[in-house]
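Protocol step 4 of 6: structure prediction from sequence.
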Amino acid sequence: MNEGVTNGIVAVLMAVVGVAIVAVIVSKNAQTPSVLTAAGTAFGGIIGAATAPVTGASSASTLGSALGSTLGSFTTTANG
């Protein structure tokens, strides 16, 4: 395929993804704060697990507690 055609296809797909993201964020049914909190908790758990060998923290407990609270937050949010 021509490079210009490939770039055009990628641009269209990126635009569709962008519109979908905006639609989800501004939707009346969106639970954006819960999603952002869960993502932040998961990211913190990943960082904790990655730094555990240096800090001496238990990587299993750090990642497990982060994932547990993240999944709990999604379950609570989904059930109201």
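Step 5 (inspection) to follow. The chain has a mean pLDDT of 78.
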